[in-house]
């Protein structure tokens, strides 16, 4: 995949890797969008928390039905998938709430945050520290973003980390194709147990409290396993696998195929995807990720307005391929940044991938879709 930059990957130093791509115009873009879109685009949408009611009903009702109705395996499987989809949909909705898109007090936000993220073993305060502050504040910025596989600087300093890359999409290992099935919960635990201990960007975070709460959430799942017996395949395992797969099917495409940028500019360091309409609504338009990073506290039902603006005004920069195309490219590209626009596999330094032609290709596809 591509060729090594200047033919000498090993000697590329921190200075070259630290150089960034993109434009530093994110403030101007945000201002133009705010000025040109209706004011209600950016107002809190408190009423949207009502969606927790049907989602929670599907989860509780589905698990109860599987344990009591004696349904055939195929019916249990379908119900388990519905439960899993409701779990991840609740997480998407809680993600909005914890960003402030629904307004409300912090206590009420935490309540809905627990509904959405508790089953994924993530506490509301941990999510705020990890996602809202750390990820949004350092999106695709060198080795600062906790959701990035980072740069070659990290792997030169800690070569033992290269083994972890075998799990990831693009590594070429057979088991990397299972990464989506567990990696949301897995990554969250890595951040909680390790990065919060060492990372200086978590000041004030009550780590021990979050760990106790996370263990409590895990115990709740273990109780359900004990109650379910062999039915735990349907009441626990399949729902969690599906929730992880759906969630990571979005999350892993958000930034991994985009350059590292001079400033934290979502137009250049983030990517949206195109998902079929009904699925997009079921998943609270989590596909609109550039839009979300531009306006984190905007309710997702208003995100299509921002997408339309970006497509009209920044067609040469806004990237939103089909969901299938994005996931496919994840498995065709390595995960570590050699330079801001070049990916590399630290285990095989000849395996590099230039993101600039890919960006041009995806933008061309995007514009073709709009013109069709």
Question: How would you portray this structure in words?
Answer:
- This protein is mainly α.
- The chain has one domain.
- The longest helix is centred in the N-terminal third of the chain and has 27 residues.
Number of strands: 3
Q: What kind of sheet is the major sheet?
A: 3 strands, antiparallel
What is the arithmetic mean of pLDDT?
92
Rg of Cα set: 21 Å
How much helix, percentage-wise, in residues? 40-55%
The N- and C-terminal alpha carbons lie at a distance of 31 Å
Strand order across the largest sheet: 1-2-3
Strand percentage? under 5%
**Secondary-structure element order, as H and E?**
HHHHHHHHHHHHHHHEEEH
- The secondary structure category is mainly alpha
- Runs in which pLDDT lies below 50 for 5 or more consecutive residues are 1-19
- Helix count equals 16
Structurally, how many domains make up the residues? 1
Question: Based on CA inertia axes, which overall geometry fits?
Answer: globular
Summarize this entry quickly.
This protein is mainly alpha-helical and 372 residues long. It is 54% helix and 4% strand. The chain has one domain (5-371).
Name the descriptors.
3 strands; globular; 3-stranded antiparallel sheet; mainly alpha; 372 residues; 54% helix; disordered N terminus
Question: Would you spell out the secondary-structure blueprint of this structure?
Answer:
Blueprint: H1 14-18, H2 26-36, H3 52-68, H4 73-99, H5 106-117, H6 124-137, H7 152-157, H8 183-198, H9 207-228, H10 232-251, H11 266-269, H12 277-282, H13 289-294, H14 303-313, H15 323-330, E1 336-339, E2 342-345, E3 348-354, H16 355-371
Antiparallel strand pairs: 1-2, 2-3
Helix pairs in contact: 3-4, 4-5, 4-10
